[in-house]
């Protein structure tokens, strides 16, 4: 029991530090939303707002109040996403050295049953090898340790989107973006498919 409590305190402290770094340029309500949505997603395991609200640890407020607060922030027109995206590199940027492997992978988000999602494209499902509806995904990871690569960029895209430049320009733009952030530190690692 003591080990579990110590582990939970350690995780809680690390999570608090991560959220503090990520949300340092946010307003107080946006910081609360970042904390609640992140904790709700971790505890629930699904990005379903109603279930996330149920799993929030703060039981002093009613479930409907928590649900309304999460939904209001999701539909609010704000620059929340841009602020969080701008702050995220500060979390991992200090760990990138000149010899840090930066792994590039092109993957897919398969949506075989989807019919009405915006700009659905035909992708090869990596699990089954079949052509299905879905989106392409550019993934870049920094290999800081052998077991835990840190995701530095996960960017979905579709070649069905209007004015889409195509797959190669999107991949090259992602690589240039990361190497601009790191001041050209790191070593790009790709598989034979590129």
Describe the sheet with the most strands.
5 strands, mixed
Distance between the termini: 49 Å
The gross shape turns out to be globular
Helix residue percentage? 40-55%
Number of helices: 7
**What Rg is obtained from the alpha carbons, in whole angstroms?**
19 Å
The percentage of residues in β strands lies in: 15-25%
Rounded mean pLDDT is: 86
- Along the chain, the helix and strand elements come as HHHHHHEEEEHE
Number of domains: 2
Protein name: Transposase IS701-like DDE domain-containing protein
Organism: marine sediment metagenome
Q: What would your notes on this structure say?
A:
It comes from marine sediment metagenome. This is Transposase IS701-like DDE domain-containing protein. By secondary structure, this protein is of the alpha+beta class. The chain folds into two domains: 2-87; 95-189, no CATH class. Helices cover 43% and strands 19% of the residues. It contains seven helices and five strands, in the order ααααααββββαβ. It has helices spanning 2-22, 28-44, 49-54, 63-75, 80-87, 89-92, 167-181; strands at residues 101-110, 121-124, 131-142, 150-157, 187-189. Strands 1, 2, 3, 4 and 5 form a five-stranded mixed beta sheet that branches. The N and C termini lie far apart (49 Å). The model has no long low-confidence stretch (mean pLDDT 86).
Offer a quick outline of the entry.
By secondary structure, this protein is an alpha+beta fold. The chain has helices at residues 2-22, 28-44, 49-54, 63-75, 80-87, 89-92, 167-181, and strands at residues 101-110, 121-124, 131-142, 150-157, 187-189.
């Amino acid at each position: 029991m003591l080990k579990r409590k110590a582990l939970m305190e350690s995780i809680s402290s690390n999570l608090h530090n991560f959220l503090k770094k990520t949300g340092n340029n946010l307003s107080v309500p946006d910081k609360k939303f970042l904390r609640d949505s992140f904790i709700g997603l971790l505890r629930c395991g699904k990005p379903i707002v109603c279930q996330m609200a149920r799993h929030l640890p703060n039981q002093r407020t009613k479930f409907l109040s928590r649900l309304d607060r999460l939904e209001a922030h999701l539909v609010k027109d704000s620059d929340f996403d841009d602020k969080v995206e701008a702050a995220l590199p500060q979390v991992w940027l200090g760990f990138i050295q000149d010899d840090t492997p930066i792994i590039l992978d092109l993957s897919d988000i398969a949506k075989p049953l989807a019919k009405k999602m915006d700009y659905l494209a035909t992708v090869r499902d990596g699990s089954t090898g079949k052509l299905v509806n879905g989106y392409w995904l550019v993934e870049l990871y920094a290999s800081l340790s052998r077991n835990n690569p840190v995701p530095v960029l996960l960017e979905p895209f579709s070649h069905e989107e209007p004015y889409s430049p195509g797959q190669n320009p999107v991949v090259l733009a992602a690589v240039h973006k990361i190497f601009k952030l790191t001041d050209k530190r790191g070593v790009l690692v790709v598989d034979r498919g590129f």
